[in-house]
Amino acid sequence: MLMKKKNAVAFMIILFICVAVYLNWNYTQNIAKFEPGGINTGNITDDDILVDVNKSEDQNKPDDEGNTELTSTDDYFTNARIERQKARDNALNVLRETVNEKNLSQEARDKAAQSMETLAAGAVSEARIETLIKAKGFSDCVTLINDKNVNVIVKAPKGGLTASDTAKIKDIVVSETNMKPSQINIVEKN
Fold first, then answer.
1. CATH number of 2-37+46-189
2. Which residues contact 138 (CB under 8 A, 6 or more apart)?
3. Count of CB atoms within 10 A of residue 173's CB?
4. pTM
């Protein structure tokens, strides 16, 4: 009976994660349709994101006809969210296969189920952090949470981030995670 309850709970968790992943993917796809340049499907890692944020580009560039279009600064955040979701989807697929593998011990399957819960909780925390940072007046940001630190990439306002801005962002991250301020990296994207 206990085993059936555990399996039912694991199934419900997997189901909720799948629904959340699908809704997040669908939401991201709908936003990307309205972004200039569409969706970039190239692979990107956390290290690529942290390196790319140091590149400075103009906010708007005129094309040959004099029309102004948004540059990769805006696409950057959309692409980063898409790549983050792709990585999360791949991890969930691996964990789902592990949970469903009958030849593995129950302990290994339980660890995989726990990892899925952690991944889902991280996704929720990332979304909350991003929403709260935007509510504080920042135009866009992407949050990447792992077990050691939190990286927050923020679209820099004119003049860059102030010490007050950095403190606001750190307060939000600390309130939404168990991370210490020393584990929070804030990176400006120009």
1. 1.10.287.4300
2. 154, 155, 157, 165, 169
3. 27
4. 0.61
Residue extents of the structural domains in the chain: 2-37+46-189
Two structure tokens written together for 120: 């889902």
Written as one string, the DSSP assignment of 4-43 is: HHHHHHHHHHHHHHHHHHHHHHHHHHHHHHHSTT------
Please determine, for residue 172, whether its predicted confidence score (pLDDT) is greater than 90.
yes
Q: What is the 8-class DSSP label of residue 174?
A: H
Whether 150 contacts 184, CB under 8 Å: yes
Q: How many Cβ atoms are within 10 Å of 131's Cβ, its own excluded? A: 13
Within 8 A by CB and 6+ apart from 155, the residues are 73, 77, 138, 139, 140, 141, 189
User: Chain-centre distance of CA 164, in angstroms?
Assistant: 24
- How does pLDDT run across 47-84, given as a tens digit for each residue? 443 433 333 333 334 444 444 344 566 689 999 999 99
